[in-house]
Amino acid sequence: MPQATAPVPSLANLFADAFEQGRKVDFALFPQGVAASSPVNAAPYVCTAAAFRATFGVGAGRAALIERWEGMLDEMIARGLVPVFSLFGGSLLDRQRPAPRDIDCVVFYRLDDSADNAPAWLAERARRAAAEAIDARFVPVDGPAIVMAKSLAYFTLLYAQARPERRCHGLVLIDHLTDFG
Predict the structure, then answer these.
(1) For 112-171, how does the pLDDT look when each residue is reduced to its tens digit (9 = 90+)?
(2) Cβ-Cβ contacts under 8 Å for 160 (sequence gap 6 or more)
(3) Which residues are paired to 175 by β-bridges?
(4) Residue 116: what pLDDT?
(5) Of residues 56, 55, 164, the one with CA closest to residue 104
(6) What's the rounded Cα separation, in Å, for the pair 126 and 25?
(7) What is the pLDDT of residue 181?
(8) Residue 6, pLDDT score
(9) Which of 49, 57, 96, 157 reaches 20 to 30 Å from 63, CA-CA?
(10) Neighbour tally for 59: CB within 10 Å
């Protein structure tokens, strides 16, 4: 007689569970130690924009930073630049810090058919973002794959490094295309 097997959890559920576990350990880089870690259960943790906002947007200053970042994404979408995922690091992810000074993020995007003059607009938008306390970088996912891979590796290393004035903590990826709670 065949044995019943447990349902296989979806990748989305695995990411959501890992994000919740990460929250409990302050988003440590390798919460179970390197040997027991995997791309699913260690940094960068994957979540939705709603989970990100609920976790890191507590308090007026934090909420305002995230609202400005979300407004930037809305502007991108209106110009035909579709956010695919965003990588976050820096003081916003240190939940023990009540008032982070800015958001450090990289938005990976694709162009839709209506996109026009994207490089010039993104350069100008990055300047405006800096004035809004958003240190934003933009990387296309529909260009050469090596550019995306190199950029993701570079910013992961940059955001994961510990500075003397702050604790080292993990990174977070927001998946803009998947709604997995």
Answers:
(1) 887 778 889 999 999 999 999 999 999 999 989 999 999 999 999 999 886 655 556 689
(2) 29, 43, 89, 168, 170, 171
(3) 85
(4) 78
(5) 56
(6) 32
(7) 40
(8) 60
(9) 157
(10) 13
- Which pTM was predicted? 0.89
d(CA 36, CA 42): 9
In the numeric block, the tokens 């810090």 are attached to 97
Residue 110 is encoded by which pair of tokens?
Answer: 């694709």
Q: Residue 134: what are its φ and ψ, rounded to 5°?
A: -125, 110
Strand-pair category, 172-175 with 45-47: parallel
Q: Which amino acid is at 36?
A: A
Residue with tokens 């891979």: 149
Q: Cβ(174)–Cβ(49) under 8 Å?
A: yes
Q: Break the chain down into helix, strand, coil percent, rounded to 5.
A: 45, 20, 40
Residue 3 has pLDDT above 70, yes or no: no
| The two three-digit tokens of residue 181, written as one number | 């709670």
Helix (H, G, I), strand (E, B) or coil at 134: strand
| Angle in degrees, CA 140, 146, 152, rounded to 5 | 65
